[in-house]
Design a protein that fits this description.
Elements lengths: L5 H12 L4 H23 L8 E5 L5 E3 H15 L4 E6 L6 E2 L9 E9 L10 E9 L9 H4 L8 E7 L3 E6 L5 E6 L4 E6 L10 E3 L10 H11 L11 E3 L4 H11 L2 E4 L12 E2 H14 L3 E3 L16 E2 L1 E4 L1 H12 L1
Parallel strand pairs: 3-5, 11-12, 11-13
Antiparallel strand pairs: 1-2, 3-4, 5-6, 6-7, 7-8, 8-9, 9-10, 13-17, 14-16, 15-17
Helix pairs in contact: 2-3, 5-8
Length: 333
């Protein structure tokens, strides 16, 4: 049986199901090529002199790694000239990036976290790229920040690349979730994980336990019950994982189930969470839901949240349906 490349897969989806407009297909292929270039830089590491701090900060005041800046530039440059985009927004930039005046513009808006988990770069642990695609409002030749502020339910595509022992691209455009592995010799993404599904039940959770003292009561209750194991109210023993890279955590959940949590905490009560709604919460919630999982902020479905700002933060509980619904019910009840 012949192997199915990303390009062939997208063309067949466009041709057979009519679910993928041609300009969206071209946009996804462009992002996928950019992710290949980022993977090359990540895999080179110290050999290319790309490890370490860049000596700059992003819009959130966080120190940037050299690869944060490189990955951001790769995505901007790859997507400027294709004619599919009206504008782009990045976790690393305060304001949207307009398509240059001499370039053709398209009807889509692209948002991305160019290198998620960048604190892991220097210690050779998996990192990744997350992206989200929205449609720009009709008749707006120059999209503004306000045009990006759409609920996640209006995403037309989302995906991530994880750069690890294998480089993988995971993609949804609202018709299921598909995983592609980068064939390094041929330089092409090959379909290896069709119709990825999150198991409804799990015995595995991911959370940064060092923050326990800062969490709200519903989260502490849920964690206490899991730690009580088979003798506790949940009646089963759980394992904990924590990679500190959302891409790696979500990928594990898509492959074998689990629940990932990054809750609100008391260190900064003015912020509803740590992760960014537009660049992390929404695209990952879209992917997890399309794979049969659930994603909430503890109180409501993440994809229903109306964003108020480009860099808005959100609490995140996502993964296997049974566990996410349980911790959400603790918040609600």
């Amino acid at each position: 049986m012949s192997r199915i490349s990303l390009s062939r897969f997208l063309i067949e989806e466009q041709r057979q199901h009519g679910a993928l407009p041609p300009d969206l297909r071209l946009l996804i292929e462009t992002v996928a090529r950019a992710c290949k270039a980022i993977a090359h830089s990540v895999n080179k590491g110290a050999l290319a002199g790309v490890l370490g701090d860049a000596g700059t900060g992003n819009v959130q005041g966080e120190a940037q790694k050299k690869l944060d800046v490189i990955a951001n530039d790769i995505l901007l440059e790859a997507n400027e000239w294709g004619g599919n985009l009206g504008a782009m927004a990045s976790e690393e930039m305060e304001l949207p990036h307009s398509i240059p005046d001499h370039m053709p513009r398209g009807r889509y808006l692209l948002m991305f976290d160019p290198l998620d988990g960048s604190s892991n770069i220097d210690v050779n642990i998996s990192v990744g790229t997350i992206f989200s695609v929205l449609e720009a409002p009709e008749g707006n030749a120059q999209p503004t920040e306000q045009d990006f502020l759409q609920p996640g339910s209006r995403q037309v595509a989302a995906g991530y690349a994880v750069y690890g022992p294998q480089n993988m691209l995971v993609l949804t455009f609202g018709q299921g979730v598909y995983g592609f592995t980068l064939d390094r010799e041929l330089g092409s993404w090959v379909l290896t994980n069709p119709r990825m599904q999150v198991p409804e039940t799990t015995k595995e959770f991911a959370i940064n336990m060092s923050n326990l003292r800062h969490w709200e009561a519903p989260v502490r209750r849920y964690i206490d019950e899991m730690l009580a194991g088979s003798e506790g109210p949940l009646g089963k023993d759980y394992n904990m994982r924590w990679v500190a890279s959302m891409v790696a955590e979500v990928h594990r959940i898509l492959v074998r189930g689990g629940v990932f949590m990054y809750p609100k905490d008391a260190r900064d009560p003015s912020k509803p969470g740590k992760l960014r709604l537009m660049y992390e919460g929404n695209p990952m919630a879209f992917i997890v839901e399309q794979a049969g999982g659930v994603a909430t902020n503890g109180h409501q479905r993440i994809l229903d949240i109306q964003p108020a700002g480009l860099h808005e933060r959100v609490a995140v509980f996502l993964g296997s349906k049974e566990e996410v619904e349980r911790v959400t019910s603790y918040h609600q009840g």
